[in-house]
Amino acid sequence: MSAPAMHRHSHHAMATLFEVFIAGEDPGFAAGAAQAAFEEIDRLEQEFSRYRPNSDIARINNLFPGGETRVSADTFACLQLAHQYWKATNGAFDITMGALMDVWVAPDRSLKNPDVREVEEAVRRSGMHLLTLDEETYLVGVGDHVPRIDPGAIGKGYAVDACIELLHEWGVDAALVHGGTSTAKGYGHAWPVTASSFADPSRVLREFTLDAMALSGSGMKKGRHIIDTRTHQPVAGRHAAWVCVPSATESDALSTAFMVMSMAEIAEFCAARSDLRAIVIDDDGASGERVLSYGWGSGDSAGG
User: Fold this and answer.
1) Nearest to residue 276, comparing CAs of 304, 303, 255, 302?
2) β-strand 238-245 against 277-283: which pairing, if any?
3) Residue-wise pLDDT tens for the chain (304 aa)?
4) What is the rounded distance in angstroms from the CA atom of residue 59 to the CA atom of residue 42?
5) What is the C-alpha separation between 11 and 35, in angstroms, rounded?
6) pTM exceeds 0.90 for this model
7) What is the CA radius of gyration of the chain?
8) Bridge-partner residues for 69, per DSSP?
9) How far apart are the first and last CA of the chain?
10) How far is CA 173 from CA 25, 30, 166, 196, in A?
11) What is the 3-state secondary structure (H, E, C) of the chain?
12) How far is 21 from 178, CA to CA, in rounded Å?
């Protein structure tokens, strides 16, 4: 039996490359479905981008103390999910870290050496508790301190989930969508994907099969810094984290959170979730790099 025809389409958005793979459909139909998915991504980027002056996120970031603004249903849902993951990870996942990023990371992506007062002021502007979310009106409000929201650690995952939902509505039986190769979700087919080292992409850590599952990875690429909003300091010693769960939005968020959480916190979190698989690359400075996996058996080595 021959393999189903595979159709691949790509599109630049959200500062990365999105790709849609559709199996076993007419080429014209597949192209139309992929184009609809890309239009959905562009629509979400218009709402989520902190760089576009009239986006929902930019308007929140530019509120005066005590102000509020109405946002779209998707932006509100994304903020609700971000708040949910913030609580579930005890603050390890936080999209309000923009002020802390500004004081720690220079425009050339090098680390700065801020003074205590700069960090204290940024801390006052950080935390999901600074936002009020009115589910009936889609109004988002701020108090005395206005946070700087950056949805980059959840936006691609949300877009991938939205595309998968749209492809289902189109009647596509089997598809995989990825955003920048760091977040992917597939259904209707045993889609083979790999989790690789961010430092050495040729080094495969695990092979996954995605069918109604999503996989996301976060890592310390050159020039990238992750701030722990709980300690208010840049993260050190954590090289990469990969998370596989049914939701691309959640996998995107948790892979970032696992870059911040302690190994004990990660182990406890994973032990409570039967639908979660994770790989974490850590370096404690003494025993060197270690690669741990969760979900196949807590603490089992995934290589390295």
Assistant:
1) 255
2) antiparallel
3) 456 789 999 999 999 999 999 998 999 999 999 999 999 999 999 999 999 989 999 999 999 999 999 999 999 999 999 999 999 999 999 999 989 999 998 888 888 989 999 999 999 999 999 999 999 999 999 999 999 999 988 999 999 999 999 999 999 999 999 998 889 999 999 999 988 777 777 888 888 899 999 999 988 665 467 888 888 888 877 888 999 999 999 999 999 999 999 999 999 999 999 999 999 988 766 666 788 899 864 333 333 3
4) 18
5) 9
6) yes
7) 20
8) 140
9) 38
10) 8, 11, 12, 28
11) CCCCCEEEEEEEECCEEEEEEEECCCHHHHHHHHHHHHHHHHHHHHHHCCCCCCCHHHHHHCCCCCCEEECCHHHHHHHHHHHHHHHHCCCCCCCCEHHHHHHHECCCCCECCCCHHHHHHHHHCCCHHHEEEECCCCEEEECCCCCECCCHHHHHHHHHHHHHHHHHHHCCCCEEEEECCCEEEEECCCEEEEEECCCCCCCEEEEEEECCEEEEEEECCCCCCCEECCCCEECCCEEEEEEEECCHHHHHHHHHHCCCCCHHHHHHHHHCCCCCEEEEEEECCCCCEEEEEECCCCCEECCC
12) 9
The position carrying tokens 């939902």 is 165
Token couple for 299: 């603490």
Locate 110 and state its tokens. 């090098």
C-alpha span between 130 and 123 (Å, rounded): 11
